[in-house]
């Protein structure tokens, strides 16, 4: 009876841990190991830091402070108190990525996608919201000429990794916000 109870306890523990899994990577039990020595160091450094691979960050004042941009696979975390301009910074950065041909997926769960689209059209056309509303098609065309079509916005709730992962697989973005 005790042996059966211990097996049951093990299975219940495993079941409990599986319920919290939200990505396939969390199921992986194997580890990945990449070994680098001075034999392959030149390729690693020179390919990684090739300027053509870098995502230039806008505003340039921030980009300059972090070495001109970020490499694919790197992360930027933006945090601040409410109403300090985090979304505005994201709009500026994404507008810069899109203008340079980088496909960007924005997964939003706070503001409706229409708010972000309006901000992108404003930023990329250089026009005010009032002007955009009065001359929507003109402003949209101006923004498209500057890369608006390189942006995809998906509204999700609550925005868990389980929801985001299939979107990455579907759209294959260069940048994820």
Descriptors:
3-stranded parallel sheet; two-stranded antiparallel ribbon; mainly alpha; 5 strands; 177 residues
What does this structure look like?
The protein has 177 residues and is mainly alpha-helical. Helix content is 49%, strand content 9%. The strands form 2 sheets. The chain has a 3-stranded parallel sheet with strand order 4-3-5, with helices on both faces. A two-stranded antiparallel sheet has the order 1-2. The longest helix is centred in the N-terminal third of the chain and has 18 residues, at 2-19. It is globular and about 75 Å long. The protein starts with a helix and ends with a strand. The model has no long low-confidence stretch (mean pLDDT 86).
Q: SSE layout and pairings?
A:
Layout (H helix, E strand, L loop, with lengths): L1 H18 L21 H8 L6 E2 L3 H6 L3 E2 L15 H14 L4 E5 L4 H13 L3 H6 L1 H10 L5 E5 L5 H11 L3 E2 L1
Parallel strand pairs: 3-4, 3-5
Antiparallel strand pairs: 1-2
